[in-house]
Design a protein that fits this description.
It is a single chain. This protein is α/β, with parallel strands linked by helices and 304 residues long. It has a single domain, classed as Glycerol-3-phosphate (1)-acyltransferase (3-Layer(aba) Sandwich), CATH 3.40.1130. The protein has eleven helices and nine strands. The protein has a seven-stranded mixed β-sheet with strand order 1-9-8-2-5-3-4, with helices on both faces. Strands 6-7 form a two-stranded antiparallel ribbon. A hairpin with a 2-residue loop joins strand 6 and strand 7. The longest helix has 27 residues. It is found in: Cell inner membrane. It is an enzyme of class 2 (transferase). One of its GO terms (biological process) is response to cold.
C-alpha cells in the first residue's frame, strides 16, 4: 500500500536529495530537444567517472557478442553511456511531466495484442527488459492501459515515496518482486502485471540457461512459477528511443502460444525472447549490470 508524505522527509539529512530532485524537475521543464541534449551530454561526461561500470559493460558486451569488432564494441559502449544519461532525464520526464506532454512523444506498435490478451479475463504477464528508458516506459505503458508492476523497494524512504508517487501517476500499483502471492492474486483477478526477468537475481530460485553467447546465465524461475500458478497470458512490452529527437515507440508483442511446460526449457525460451527485445536497441540496454555474476558451482568467475 502506497503511503503518503511524511514530515521526516524534510529532515536535513534529505536536503541533498531534495536539491537533486529540484534540479531534475527544473531540467525537464525545458523543451524536449534541449532535455535530450542535456541527457546525452551528461551520459558522455559521466563515463570517465564510472570506470567500474564501464568495465562491466565492456565485459558483458565481450561475452554476449564475441564476434563483434573492437570498433563496434567501443561504439556500443559509447551509445550505452549516452543512454545512461538519457535514462536520468527520462526518469524526470516520467515522474514530473503531465500526461498531455508525455503523449506527444510516443507511439505504440501492437496495442491490439494487449487488448486481445486482456479480453480473456485471466490476466497478462507483461515481460519487460531493463532498457535505460525504463521509468518513462512504465509511465507510457500506463497511459495506454493502467497496469501493475513488480519492483525492488528503494532503500531510502524518501526516494521510495518519490518513485512510487511518480510511477502511480499512470499505473495502478507496485508489487514487491518478492511478493509472489500478491503478484499471482493480481493476475488471477484479471490484471496486467509488468515483470522483468532479465537480471541476475542470484542462485536461489534460478536455473542456468543460454543468454546470447553465454551458455550458463543464471535465469530466474519467477516467470515460470508465476505462469504455472496464474495460467495468465504472457507477452512482451518494451519501449525504445527513436533516432534523433523523434521520441519513443512502445512495442507490444503477440501473446506467446508456445511457452514451455518444462522449467529449463522455459528459461531458455524467455532468454531468447529477451535477446530479441534487446536487439531492437542494444545501445539502450542496461549493460552496466553484472548479468553473469552468479556462476555454476566450480565455474570460473566472469568479472575481475
Amino acid at each position: 500500500m502506497f503511503s503518503g508524505f511524511k514530515k521526516s522527509f524534510l529532515h536535513p539529512r534529505n536536503w541533498l536529495t531534495w536539491l537533486g530532485l529540484g534540479i531534475l524537475w527544473a531540467m525537464v521543464q525545458l523543451p524536449y530537444p534541449v532535455i535530450a541534449c542535456i541527457g546525452r551530454s551528461l551520459g558522455k561526461a559521466s563515463r570517465p567517472f564510472l570506470k567500474r561500470r564501464e568495465k562491466i559493460a565492456r565485459r558483458n558486451i565481450e561475452l554476449c557478442f564475441p564476434e563483434m569488432s573492437a570498433v563496434e564494441k567501443e561504439k556500443l559502449i559509447d551509445d550505452n553511456f549516452i543512454s545512461l544519461g538519457m535514462g536520468l532525464v527520462e526518469t524526470g520526464m516520467a515522474w514530473f511531466w503531465r500526461d498531455s506532454r508525455v503523449r506527444k512523444w510516443f507511439d505504440v506498435e501492437g496495442y491490439a495484442h494487449l487488448d486481445q490478451a486482456m479480453s480473456t479475463g485471466k490476466g497478462v504477464i507483461a515481460i519487460g527488459v531493463h532498457f535505460m528508458s525504463l521509468e518513462l516506459g512504465g509511465r507510457v505503458m500506463g497511459l495506454c492501459r493502467p497496469m501493475m508492476a513488480t519492483y525492488r523497494p528503494h532503500n531510502s524512504p524518501l526516494m521510495e515515496w518519490v518513485q512510487t508517487k511518480g510511477r502511480l501517476r499512470s499505473n495502478k500499483a507496485m508489487i514487491d518482486r518478492r511478493n509472489l502471492k500478491g503478484l499471482v492474486n493480481a493476475l488471477k483477478s484479471g490484471e496486467a502485471v509488468w515483470f522483468a526477468p532479465d537480471q541476475d537475481y542470484g542462485p536461489k530460485g534460478s536455473v542456468f540457461a543460454p543468454f546470447f553467447s553465454v551458455p550458463d546465465a543464471a535465469t530466474t524461475n519467477g516467470t515460470y512459477a508465476v505462469s504455472q500458478l496464474s495460467r495468465s497470458a504472457m507477452l512482451t512490452i518494451t519501449m525504445v528511443r527513436k533516432p534523433g529527437h523523434a521520441g519513443y515507440r512502445l512495442h507490444i508483442s503477440k501473446a506467446f502460444d508456445d511457452y514451455p511446460e518444462s522449467k529449463i526449457q522455459a528459461a531458455r525460451y524467455i532468454n531468447k525472447v529477451i535477446e530479441q527485445e534487446i536487439l531492437r536497441a542494444p545501445g539502450q540496454y542496461l549493460w552496466v549490470h553484472r548479468r553473469f555474476k552468479t556462476r555454476p558451482e566450480g565455474a570460473t568467475q566472469l568479472y575481475s
